[in-house]
Specification:
Blueprint (H helix, E strand, L loop, with lengths): L1 E10 L8 E8 L2 E6 L6 E6 L4 E4 L1 E3 L15 H4 L3 E5 L15 H7 L14 H6 L7 E3 L1 E3 H9 L8 H17 L3 E5 L10 H13 L3 E5 L7 H15 L3 E3 L13 H13 L4 E5 L4 E5 L13 H8 L2 H14 L13 E5 L11 H8 L3 H11 L5 E5 L3 H8 L5 E2 L20 H16 L5 H8 L1 H7 L15 E4 L20 E6 L2 E5 L2 E2 L7 E2 L1 E2 L2 E2 L1
Parallel strand pairs: 1-4, 1-5, 6-7, 7-8, 8-22, 9-10, 10-11, 11-12, 12-13, 13-17
Antiparallel strand pairs: 1-2, 2-3, 5-18, 14-16, 15-16, 18-19, 19-20, 20-21, 23-24
The structure holds zinc ion (ZN) (2 copies).
One zinc ion binds next to loops.
Length: about 525
């Protein structure tokens, strides 16, 4: 007897194959059958006539390591149908944290993880004490974090000893089961590193069967060179590369999506193992201070705040931004294209644009930005419209592209319900399925689902998940293809999507009829010998 039988569904299995009518049976946390007119019986039968039955979605790029310990029910993700979250992205991870660097790491991550308690830990212990949560977790160790531990916020090459220290901490994380190394070369201190440093770390990743993901050095003026740099790490070190949240930022780069996508086609033709991911929005989000020139951050938070109070520094920054636009984002169209997402210490009101704040304070827009950073000790986070909708749609239409919300898991209630975060935290997957696939027809439904499931599993080396087949872990989502849609907006971001009806994680029903069962059935997945399970 099976535990659960999902009857009369339209199965889309995650491989890209066409939909078919079939029943899905689950027993002991695994799929026991995917068959038409299955004859077995089960303790619980869910009749889903007309609904899509698909593998649970894999959010391949998230920052939920900052919030899942605070919201173990994984609300905004599980309600989109996400059953696995990959954390530790963009060079940022909460571990390792050495005793004398805990404060520096807390300060460094204040614009992303303002509510998380930080404590001394190595990666092994960090994984061992990871709490029970409603989704599966995959961990990466961040290069920015490693560099802060080894050499602080210094703008220079590591000494031989510092490089060995980074390599040793990386090896420890990989040995504990981390998927791999992530880099965030767009901001300090990762931006202070040269390619040789990344190759030296990439060789450690290779030796442990790990993978490399990168928020590349520049997503604007030098985006093509930066993507080539990431691909080169994979090619030189013989490791898989995941290029994060692929985009063309800054008005000067709009319209180059085909050229960008062509870089990946060429790399694959040369035999490089490379994937990328995307969130389907033309707005990005980041700590406000990361938009400024990276030299400001050298030496850490106090050094940065002191520099920003200096009128001469302000005029130097002003001149640089007039020339090249913002760090990583390039030129934007208007000051209304930067909005406050959250300002944990109350320096600015969430939802207001920089244009509105400058007007109200009767100051110049850049002075408003400098003042907010100082008043909030660098913790203010913003939204920025830096992409063109045409490029977003072109990249989303690429069947090989995987899907990552690039967001932490939050909830409309509790400590993570503050501010006005990016709507992608609540909407990424339903938006791609509803708005782009059903309404605009940029992909077929089996293609869209494969991006979120089977293709993501391949990109991660994830075994026994990502497709619906007997013997695989029972991560399943049931949704209505006619109604699925993101509902989160910039003004009301803490809004769950519609159309997702049932979500099952490791054979346990977590979401059904809009209710969370309180089940914390997710598993921490560990990488061993290149495979993740
Ligand atoms: Zn990033
Ligand atoms: Zn990210």
């Amino acid at each position: 007897m099976d535990d659960i039988l999902i009857k009369n569904g339209t199965v889309i299995d995650g491989t890209g194959a066409p939909e078919r009518t079939a029943d899905v049976a689950i027993r002991n946390g695994r799929i026991s059958a995917v068959e038409e007119n299955y004859s077995g019986s089960a303790e619980r039968v869910i009749d889903v006539h007309g609904r899509i039955v698909a593998p649970g979605f894999i959010d391949i790029h998230t920052h939920s390591d900052f919030t899942l310990p605070l919201n173990p029910k994984a609300e905004c993700k599980i309600r989109q149908g996400v059953t696995t979250e990959v954390v530790g992205n963009c060079g940022f991870s909460v571990a390792p944290a050495l005793p004398d660097k805990v404060e520096m790491l807390r300060d460094y991550l204040s614009g992303s993880a303002p509510w998380l308690p930080f404590e001394e830990t190595d990666f092994t212990r960090y994984m061992d004490v990871w709490p029970d949560i409603s989704v599966n977790t995959v961990m990466q160790v961040g290069h920015n974090t490693l560099r802060i531990m080894a050499m602080g916020m210094e703008d220079r090459d590591p000494t031989e000893g510092e490089l060995q220290h980074m390599q040793a901490m990386l090896a420890e994380a990989l040995g504990a089961g981390a998927l791999g190394l992530s880099s965030g070369l767009f901001t300090a201190p990762g931006c202070y590193s040269k390619p040789e440093e990344m190759h030296a770390l990439g060789r450690v990743v290779q030796a442990h069967g790990g993978r490399y993901s990168s928020h590349v050095r520049d997503e604007s003026h030098c985006v093509h060179e930066a993507v080539a740099e990431a691909i080169d790490v994979g090619e030189t070190c013989g490791i898989h590369v995941q290029v994060a949240h692929l985009k063309l930022s800054g008005t000067g780069k709009w319209g180059e999506a085909d050229k960008l996508l062509g870089q990946f086609t060429e790399a694959r033709q040369r035999g490089v193992d490379v994937h990328c991911d995307q969130y389907p929005y033309d707005w990005a989000t980041n700590p406000l201070r990361f938009l400024l020139p990276t030299w400001l951050q050298e030496g850490g938070m106090d050094a940065m705040l002191a520099r920003l109070a200096d009128p001469q520094v302000r005029s130097r920054v002003r001149q640089k931004i007039a020339e090249v636009g913002f760090n990583n984002f390039g030129h934007i169209e208007s000051w209304a294209d930067i909005r406050i997402a959250i300002s944990p210490n109350g320096a600015a009101e969430p939802g207001l644009t920089i244009e509105e704040i400058a007007e109200r304070r009767n100051v110049d827009a850049l002075d408003a930005i400098f003042d907010i950073i100082i008043d909030d000790r660098g913790a203010t986070r913003i939204l920025v419209r830096s992409m063109s909708e045409n490029d977003v749609r072109r990249i989303a239409a690429e069947p090989s592209m995987t899907v990552g919300s690039d967001g932490p898991c939050v909830a409309p209630y509790g400590v993570t319900g503050q501010g006005k975060p990016h709507p992608r935290l609540y909407g990424t997957f339903p938006r791609l399925l509803g708005r782009y696939t059903r309404d605009q027809g940029i992909l077929t439904l089996p293609q869209a689902i494969a991006k979120m499931t089977g293709n993501a599993a391949i990109a991660l080396g994830l075994t026994e998940r990502g497709t619906l087949q007997a013997g695989y872990a029972a991560d399943v989502v049931i949704f209505d293809a006619e109604t699925i849609m993101d509902e989160a907006t910039f003004d009301e971001p803490h809004t769950y999507p519609t159309g997702v009806e049932t979500v099952i994680v490791n054979g346990i029903v977590v979401i059904h009829d809009g209710a969370h069962s309180e089940a914390l059935s997710g598993k921490l997945l560990r990488q061993r010998d290149g495979l993740l399970s």
